[in-house]
Design brief:
Distance between the termini: 54 Å
Number of helices: 7
Strand content: 25-35%
Number of strands: 21
Order of helices and strands: HEEHEEEEEHEHEEEEEEEEHEHEEEHE
Largest sheet: 5 strands, antiparallel
Strand order of the largest sheet: 6-7-15-11-12
Radius of gyration: 20 Å
Length: 311
């Protein structure tokens, strides 16, 4: 039975056939996929994962489409979007439950208005709660793990499972959650504060981001992880990379660790420019920057740390 025939009777999903991924990534690149499936319920997601596993089909889960570089060509990958899991509920005075598809900034704004503090520094980070947890998103001295209590995931077998924070190892922009495990919701333990104080912090952090980052332009967010004890943006800037271009992609002149889609750039343009930046930084500082963006495997990956070609 064709896949779409098996899926058509599942409640809580919407399917777009032959959908260009450029419509669903913040970088605005990506060729068509056979099925782009928006998921509205945890039960539907569990059923989907089981069917895709039975059919031995490759699938990828995305939230807001940030932090990802999708191939220009058509890929035979089914995409599951969690944007429908956007529930936020107050459990008690300091505990909040959020679905994986909630935009991170929406959650931060909601908690701030409730007089709950602990997430303010995450305001303005693109992407959703689920992706932020898997990548341990952080900014201004905050990391999402600091406020996290527990998560619920759908395993690769389609089973719903709860994991306390203590069962997850977090590090810089990383967590021990398995690649195939899908975060569907999370509990956060915050502290009581005042709405005025928290919303004031949000305005200040957003002001600082607007001064230092190319907000409002198509990008995938920060391209490289910060090396220990340093900043990728500083290294890229001092290596003379600001304003470098490849096709329609450009290293931002506002923040060097952003590559922006200036005018119809492609994923290939992005990869070529990313490699050129790596090469310049390596030649200048003998540091090979590690990508923070997620490169979908059918796009040629950047050189590995173990074999730098620029010595």
């Amino acid at each position: 039975m064709p896949l779409l025939e098996r899926l058509k009777d599942i409640e809580g999903i919407q399917i777009l056939k032959d959908e260009p991924m450029s419509r669903h990534t913040t970088l605005r690149v990506g060729g068509p996929v056979p099925a782009y499936i928006s998921v509205m319920t945890v039960r539907a997601l569990s059923t989907l994962v089981r069917i895709l596993r039975e059919e031995a089909l490759q699938y990828i889960v995305i939230g807001g489409g940030s932090n990802v570089v999708w191939p220009d060509e058509r890929t035979e990958i089914v995409v599951l979007s969690l944007n429908g899991l956007r529930h936020i509920r107050i459990i008690d005075e300091t505990t909040v439950l959020a679905g994986a598809g909630v935009p991170l900034s929406q959650l931060v704004r909601f908690t701030a208005r409730q007089g709950l503090k602990g997430l303010e520094g995450l305001f303005g980070i693109p992407g959703t709660v689920g992706g932020a947890i898997k990548g341990n998103a952080g900014s201004f001295g905050y990391e999402i793990k600091d406020a996290l209590t527990s998560v619920r995931i759908i395993t690769q077998e389609g089973e719903l499972k709860g994991i306390p924070k203590e069962g997850i190892s977090f590090s810089y922009r990383n967590s021990s959650l398995k690649e195939g495990d899908i975060v569907v919701e999370a509990l956060f333990n915050l502290k009581r504060g005042s709405p005025e104080e928290s919303t004031g912090l949000l305005r200040e952090y957003l002001r600082r981001k607007r001064q230092s980052q190319p907000l409002g332009l198509p990008s995938a967010g920060c391209v490289f992880k910060n090396p220990e004890g340093d900043f990728a943006g500083r290294l890229i800037d001092e290596a003379g990379c600001k304003g470098m271009r490849s096709g329609g992609m450009e290293v931002s002149t506002v923040h060097a660790n952003f590559i922006i889609n200036r005018s119809g750039g492609s994923a290939s343009d992005f990869i070529n420019l990313m490699k050129a930046v790596q090469e310049r930084v390596f030649r200048r500082f003998h540091i090979l920057l590690e990508p923070e963006v997620r490169i979908i495997p059918t796009v040629t990956s950047p050189p590995t740390v173990t074999s730098p070609p620029w010595r």
